[in-house]
Amino acid sequence: MDGVDVFDILFLSILAIVFGVAYIITRLILVLLDIHRKRKTLSYGKNKRKSSIKTMIVVGSGGHTTEMLRLLEHVSNTYSPRFYIMADTDKMSEEKITKFEKQEPQGKYLICKIPRSREVKQSYLSTVISTIYSLLKCVPLVFSIRPDLFEQVLCNGPGTCIPVCLLAFLLRVVGIKQTTVIFVESVCRVKTLSLSGRLLYYFADHVLVQWPALQNTYPLAAYVGRLV
């Protein structure tokens, strides 16, 4: 292989990288603009597809799961099938979900487990590592049920939701799947968003809060009153 061939390969490689980076940046800007538009118009209640909304629901141990199931009591069976995502160390949520689905049968559901992205009192530095690990574990999970099987991610604060929502956002940026991320802040958060809420505030399609003081602090959030 002569010098010209090497130069041509190097040039084409650099050109491909530049176009790839430009594409990702453009898609990222377009997705963020679309998210901002949705929040400004509060279009979270306007879904054109009424037959079924295939939904991933992220639950967390303790109060997060309880609040989420109370919220699901007030939605129709349009949200089906449902894929419940929970931490593999969560010993309580699976039992609560199974009991809920038996009492409130609303179609098909599946419980999936991923590594917990952050334990209670875990340091922020180690949280970054565990979140990346959890994100990597989410990839085969999502593709095992196929990206076309979920149109919406619904979560309310557990750290487990971060890798799931981030993956949904990345799939949207690269143009693989258009997925709506809806974050409902816990009713116990009156004045400040949770850590998950502060992170998702920048890339979730809708951030719903249950106290007006939160909307005053975070103007792109939507105040919807008490949901649970």
From TrEMBL:
Give the membrane topology.
Single-pass membrane protein
Q: Signal peptide location in the record?
A: none
Q: Where in the cell is it found?
A: Endoplasmic reticulum membrane
Q: Which InterPro entries match?
A: Oligosacch_biosynth_Alg14
Q: Which domain of life is it from?
A: Eukaryota
UniProt organism field: Ridgeia piscesae (Tubeworm)
Q: Does the keyword Endoplasmic reticulum apply?
A: yes
Membrane-spanning residues: 6-33, 123-143, 149-171
**Molecular function via GO:** N-acetylglucosaminyldiphosphodolichol N-acetylglucosaminyltransferase activity
Which UniProt keywords are present, listed alphabetically? Endoplasmic reticulum, Membrane, Transmembrane, Transmembrane helix
Assembly and partners?
A: Forms with ALG13 the active heterodimeric UDP-N-acetylglucosamine transferase complex.
Q: What is this protein called?
A: UDP-N-acetylglucosamine transferase subunit ALG14
- Give any Gene Ontology cellular component: UDP-N-acetylglucosamine transferase complex
Family, as annotated:
Belongs to the ALG14 family.
Q: Does the keyword Membrane apply?
A: yes
Tell me the Gene Ontology biological-process terms attached to this UniProt entry.
Answer: dolichol-linked oligosaccharide biosynthetic process
